[in-house]
Amino acid sequence: MKFMAMCSSGLGSSFMVQMNIEKALKTIGAEGVEVDHADLGSVSPAEADMFFVGRDLENSVSAFNNVKILNSIIDQDELVDKVREACDELGIDHSA
Fold it and tell me: Comparing C-alpha atoms, which of 42, 1, 2 is closest to residue 18?
């Protein structure tokens, strides 16, 4: 499985969300998930199983089926909840 954090430039905020997704996966005890980050213009829907973007980019990902929209990209509690939801939807085992 692969999760992808995306932002408009693929540098700062998506990299920060990538690191926070990795923390969230550890928090909930999920393993076997690759996490990466990229800019919106260089990613196709086939490149990951779940995408994470900030609410400001929601309209830019309408072609993507599996997307978690983050109300705040710095809210770790929200991200843990969204990562848990993604794992549940994709059948990824987790302990918390």
Answer: 2
